[in-house]
Amino acid sequence: xxxxxxxxEARWARKLALVGAMxxxxxxxxxxxxxxxxxxxxxxRLSGSSATAALALHADFAAMLRGREIEPAxxxxxxxxxxxESCFTAFLPAEDLKRFSVEFERFHPLGALADIDVMxxxxxxxxxxxxxxxxxxxxxxGGTAAVCCAGRAHxxxxxxxxxxxxxxxxxxxxxxxxxxxxRAALAAAVWEVSASPKPGLVTPHSSxxxxxxxxxxxxxxxxxxxxxxxxxxxxxRCSAGEPAALLPALREAGKAAERDMFAATGGVNTHKGLxxxxxxxxxxxxxxxxAGIAPAPSAIAAGAAAIAEGITSRDLARAAAPRNSAxxxxxxxxxxxxxxxxxERLFRQFGVRGIRGEAEDGFPSVxxxxxxxxxAGLSRGLSFNDAMVDALLALCAAVEDTxxxxxxxxxxxxxxxxxAALAAAxxxxxxxxxxxxxxxxNAALIARNISPGGCADLLALAVFLYLLDSRPSAAGAxxxxxxxxxxK
Amino acid sequence: xxxxxxxxxxxLESSDAMVTIAPSEDAKVEYSIESIVIKxxxxxxxxxxxxxxxxxxxxxxxxxxxxxxxxxxxxRARLETAIARAADRA
Lengths: 488, 90
Prior knowledge:
By secondary structure, chain A is of the alpha+beta class. Chain A has 21 helices and four strands. A four-stranded antiparallel beta sheet of chain A has the order 2-3-1-4, sandwiched between helices. In chain A, a hairpin with a 2-residue loop joins strand 2 and strand 3 (about 85-90). In chain A, helix 16 packs across helix 20 (about 455-470). The longest helix of chain A is centred in the middle third of the chain and has 39 residues, at about 155-195. Chain B is α+β, with helices and mostly antiparallel strands. Chain B has one domain (about 5-85): Ribosomal Protein S5, domain 2. Chain B has helices spanning about 40-55, 70-85; strands spanning about 5-10, 15-25, 30-35, 60-65. Chain B has a four-stranded mixed beta sheet with strand order 1-2-4-3. In chain B, helix 1 packs parallel to helix 2. The chains are: A alpha+beta, B alpha+beta. The interface of A and B includes residues 144 and 145 of A.
């Protein structure tokens, strides 16, 4: 008892010192502090097992803050005499930090166990009542927590029982689900690049139209991105409220994923487009899982569209009138500083919305072209490899692939579409004529330096949705049942 | 017994209380009590506060309790520490 009370006094003093120090920076304007402690009986709070829950709360609180584009001025995690404690300071009005904290307590799977005290720069604690928010609910009976707590309304065993149920639920299911989503995403990325033949694209047997990357580059990239895809799913599960509010957090996770990709490939862009689109789908799948809704392809795609809503107008409006002014871009069209991303440049040049538009529209090319083609091939008895190749042909014949536009312009796009349509009409991979047409298409694309990377990404998305919608073992078993002889 | 100086014990964290004791001109003890559970436990908090201060023999002080839903044993401990500090015994 003595040591707990001393530890709390020490913590209080440290918190005052932290906000006090902030008051000297930037005149202390809008400085505030949030401290997370565990809301459970002291015996449990001081037991070693509580640290895992506290660390998860700390990491997720930090991630969600950054997701709102709030960079903590300082963050601390320590296990003191009163149990684990987290401290975050930010240059943010205390009211905003409190609202964020209350929201976090509500939606995080362990939020019920978090006690988040917020103070302003003067050390004044900010209560829920001041913000017109309802009082914190008791873990056991749902009444006012402070009343149950101060009056010891419930036996310690009853509280402990409730705590262990919340922790167990957190440790069991959601993690397994996230890693399942992450695994499906990783499998989708690997299976797509492993499919062969793929005209102009990297396969295990060919680097297609690429000179700076090969099959191994893609595998290294995919391996690096596996945990990142699980992270997108986790962010989706943790999010509450409007889907679009999740986008800033996903952008941060996306940037981290890109860094991992470039580190793994030695600076080659293998999966930048896929990080965006598959990241969105992973987050949408995570949200569905958290809500207990079956991850049907249409539901995941619609969820991703809701998260991406408005992204075309925001990102591409900026591209239409770039920060550095359209005039400067016109004067230095090759200067990357004025060019923005490939997608932004192509929107300026061709008015094509690319993967952003695809996402915002709910992935119509995936749902209406790639996934039905994949399923049709599998139900005709094709191996997964061959079904993917046919699905890719269907995509190449229909999609305005921005990778192709970027490398070969409108003319290149028309050639690819025509060749793909011919190969599909000739029966695709299942017939000798189809295979000959695919080979001809491959030669035509390589000759013009064309690589339908956008279509390849859409194919990976279709595979991902297929895997979440069915039993992966059944699909995996027949991946390489039919070896392709074409590029050997 | 007189208070030698102003003293504070506790914190404004949830489930804690902050007790401030300050010497006053007046001979008797002046209490001011705030609590987030004043409706449910206000009387009890005042009774405990008066009891602990009386037992200490402290006089001529202002006792300010800011309660954030502390357990009774926590409140007692915070009061005793604040009194000891005010009397320069801690």
